[in-house]
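[audit] Reproducing an earlier prediction to check determinism. Same input, same settings, fresh worker. If the tokens differ from the archived copy the diff job will pick it up downstream; this log only records the rerun itself.
[audit] input (424 residues):
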Amino acid sequence: MPILMLGYIVGYLDRTSISFASQGLNKEFGMNASAFGFAVGIFFLGYVLFEVPSNVLLHRVGARLWIARIMISWGIITVLIGFSTGVEWVYILRFLLGVAEAGFFPGIILYLTYWFPNAIRARMLSIFMLSVSIALASGSLLNGQILYHFDGFMGFSGWRWIFFVGGILAMLLGVLSFFLLTDSPQKARWLAEDERSWLVQTLEAENQERAAGRTNHGTWAGLRDRRVLLLALVFFLIQFGNYPLAFWLPQLVKSIGPGLSGVQVSLLTAVPYACAATVLLLMALRFARRDSQVSHIAVPLIIATGAFAVITAALGQPLVALIAITVAVMCVLPATAMFWSLPTHYLTGAAAASGIAFINSVGNIAGFVSPYSYGVLRDVTGSDNFALATLGAAVFIASAVLISWRMVTAKRHSERPVLLETGH
């Protein structure tokens, strides 16, 4: 878990580092809000196109080799972004960064199913999703210091050093993960024989239970499953509300407090994610012995909808706006963590590899659509209000879809336990 979390922390830093480089990109390349939104979003175009193939390959060749390959390749490309000579190169390299990183997150979700039984998987997902909060909180502080102290070092602007440092960290961690990760419990020599036998037997029994009544567990089965399609829609809506917070938050904080320095902006940007990390840690303890329910996802999303409404109405009141932003982040990130306990509860084998990757792919289409549309709306309207309102609408629709699905499922299967809740 520490290796996986470090990998995702560095990955998220490299993915979102462009948000802290935005002022430098604007100064050197004349990148306006729409162009910045496109540079953010084109990463997800490459990411989505190669997501399913990458996850299927991970299932076939092993997590250790494939996760290491992903980290090293995205590290190299991140460093190259720091050498960009124009907007066009930023676009090209951001697209290639998406291609390189494709399959990393769903690969880890799949990898966790190889190791953790249903009873504690929600707990481990919450712990793993701490990575996002840690990355965005620590990234704000780290990138702020890089911009301040490294500007002009060796003749490179501070924004370029953001990419240099992040890329080198990814490459080093990729090499480390190759030597420290283990593909499956069967290969874990560091487990005692009785521990290994118990874990293998428990996971195999759960796989057989998930596979009961299904005749096809291959790649296409995961892509055709109606539950996968519905969950993909829900995840798209959640990510539509989530990604602009990650990429636009520094600029949003700057607009709330125009007189803030770069270091002050980075410190305030870290606050919402530090609070979200606390919530995720409490959730990990709360779900130590049970799986998540639909309500654990829908209720935080409804609260986030209200928070977005407050942000929209209170942009002129810095303290209120920052509190509302913090509440939104504290709700959306834990809901995302709980979301992944749903597909991992009933998919198995190659169907799990393709189904999880497909859900994440569709969700990450929002990574292209949402930041770009946010930038366009910001340019057209001259403010963040309307763009923020669309984020609140997206997460509200996601909660409504989940609640409706839960009600329909309960009505159809009232004579037996609902698989989406506890699996018992």
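[audit] rerun output stored. Observation attached for the diff report: Confidence is low (pLDDT under 50) at residues 415-424.
[audit] end
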